[in-house]
Amino acid sequence: MTLWYLARAAGLIAFLAATGSVVLGALASTGHRADDRSRDRRVLRQLAHRSAAVVTVAMLGLHVVLVVTDSFVDLSVPGALVPFTAGYRGFALGLGTLAAYSLAAVAVSGAARGRLAASARSARHWRALHASAYVVWLLSLGHGILAGTDTGRWWTWVLYAGCAAAVAGALVARLVVADRHESTSPLAAARRQLTTGGVR
Amino acid sequence: MRIEVDWTRCDGHGLCARLLPEKVGLDEWGFPVIDTPEIGDDLVPHARRAVGACPALALRLVPG
Amino acid sequence: MLETHPTVSRLLTAPAGTPRHRNQDELVGLAQQVRLLGRGGAGFPVATKLAAMPRGRAVQVLVNGSESEPASQKDRTLMRQAPHLVLDGALLVARALDTRHVTVLVHDPGATDALTRAVRERSDASRVRVVAHAGGFVSGEVRAAIRLVDGAPAVPPGRRVLPHESGVGGAPTFASNVETFAQLALLSSLGADGYAAIGSAAEPGTTLLTLVGDVSGPGVVEVPTGLPLAALLPGQDTDPRPVLIGGYHGSWVSDIRDLRVERPGLREAGLPLNAGVVARLSNDTCALAEVVAVSTWLAGQSAGQCGPCFFGLPAVARDAYALLHGRPSTADLDRRVAQLPGRGACAHPDGAAMFIRTALTTMTAEVEEHRRHGTCGRPWLQELPTGPAPAVRSAS
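Above: the input entities. Below: the structure tokens describing the complete assembly.
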């Protein structure tokens, strides 16, 4: 039973770390102000984003290993690897498996950012790929709610609602700030005209 | 090693100047000013960090 | 008009007619023997560029006639007066590289007409593509020109790409200025010895120049290389004035006594000839106002790709304007100009900085007068053109 408790704790921490990483990632492009303090805050935000991502991956690994090895629920290795084939809460676990796979892709894209986004065009693809982190987060939220043993207790609802609000808020902040930067920066406007308006 | 800026991508975020102040200063619009792009061995880890931190992916560390 | 100074007329009156075929090695050898340098701006050795080219049907030849500096007229003059010679050169190179893909990029409508007509007049040029465009200054930079031909925004890419590796349509491309191609055609017809019968030893042959302002007959001239610069600037020893060498990306210089029209020597003196514009102002115009007008034009020519150029050049132009009207300190101007070089995808900020910096250091008396009085009393006569290029004054 100890393993089972550990497995649940690891899953929960992974979800919390994922939330933190997504929020910090969404806020990474905000704060475009030309003073050293805001630059330092952005550097720290980046650092925290990457650290939270590492914690997410580590905790998820632990969660998977523990869930499979623990004997409290009968989950086989193939059942964990192939989505929606697990005997125990098949759909809910399937969401978790999908989340784990997409997280792997997001994590690899994050680690290889420098190499994958070498040109302006590939940077756009990279951004799209890395933005699948939002999908990972949604899948893990669904997995947590549907598969979580604690679901239904008051504190789980507070936790899920709080995380959802944080992610939604960060996403809105990102879209608003990106939009404002695009519309107020004269360089951004000039570059946009180059790509859309062609020859000056 | 040497740092190189892709000026068509640089947005003047200025994070490189915070992470690699030995090499990178900023002009009045926040764009990097690099007097000597050569990076000595002692600064390579810092340069890598600055490259990784660039939000616009405009900074590169290249051999030479 | 041309009797007033020692010009030759080899390029502009060359007889039409396809030059004899040369293979790549022969052409490289000829270019090497006469030390032919590219005539666009960079002055790169043609032999080196040609030797680096692979051969084959996919190879592209790009004739860059997008002369977008308002002071320069030599490319359009050449294309208008000797379009067949330009085509001869382009086809010569294409044949040597076993390809038929030739693109001529033209800025001037008259030159476009002349070239299009010339293409129709001959049977061997059916595959030559003439592309007209109206891009700004930086669109003439070779990598920008390649992107323009490919239908992309006519701005230089952020990373170094070499045309002979990836040029038009991603194919290996031999790209050079129109005059380079005309010189190659002439070289092939005359042979190395005939070609080098005139001109200096370091860069034999002739070169086209555009003379602007108070010069011996403004307009386009063809001169033998090695000609003392003073021959084009009468009265310079009795009334020495700053001379602009290399156009709006070039340098102002006061003492021209030892200078000759010859790219290697000028480069050694730190005075690149670029596209061959030589200018001198009269004593009637406000020299600083001329410089400010060109600075403002240069600022407007920033494509808006690179921050330091996009923000820096207008700031420099404003500082120069303030100096013109009596701002006592040049500290801001000096600092901003010093920060321009090396910080862009192309050499536009570098060239602009060179133009302004050398203007300030050679026109010290003018600058002093403006700092003290806010004026020099002379009007601005617009001797340095910044608008749409004026009508070409024929050189023949």
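Note for the figure: The interface with chain B takes residues 28-29, 32, 34, 36, 39-40, 42-43, 46, 113-114, 117-118, 120, 123, 185, 187-188, 191 of chain A (CB under 8 Å).
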